[in-house]
Amino acid sequence: MSRAQHAPTDATRQTVQLHTTVGTDQTTLSRILGITEKTLRKHYRDELDISLAKANATIGGVLFKKAKDGDTAAMIFWMKTQAKWRERQAIDHSSSDRSMSPPTTIQIVAGGDSKD
């Protein structure tokens, strides 16, 4: 006996859009709808592809506006993610009197039973 063919409705399309927007994975989403992942991708390809992009554009727009309006945290986040800025840590190898201290020598000694 074969299963009844799935027929998308406005309600199921809206469910897919909502869950895709907030990051629900396809395995979980297909279980919510009671269909296979293959059926989900077959009938809801546009919702799966476009919903997250729309959500990112909406949030990105709000973030961009906050950055333009002077929100320093938003500016820093934008520059790190979009302009590839990054923070660097500098390690100071000088002594407290700012002179270079001699390099530290580390000797590694292998243990175990060796017969020489």
Oligomer: single chain
Please tally the β strands and state the result. Answer: 0
Mean pLDDT: 86
Tell me what portion of residues adopts beta-strand conformation.
Answer: under 5%
Instruction: Tell me the distance between the termini.
Output: 77 Å
> From the helix content, strand content and strand pairing, which structural class follows?
mainly alpha
Helix content: 40-55%
Order of helices and strands: HHHHH
Shape by Cα distribution: elongated
Nearest-angstrom radius of gyration? Answer: 28 Å
Q: List low-pLDDT spans.
A: none
Number of helices: 5
Largest sheet: none
Structure commentary:
This protein has helices at residues 10-22, 26-33, 37-43, 45-68, 72-82. It is mainly α and 116 residues long. The protein has a domain at 10-82. Helix 4 packs across helix 5. The longest helix is centred in the middle third of the chain and has 24 residues, at 45-68.
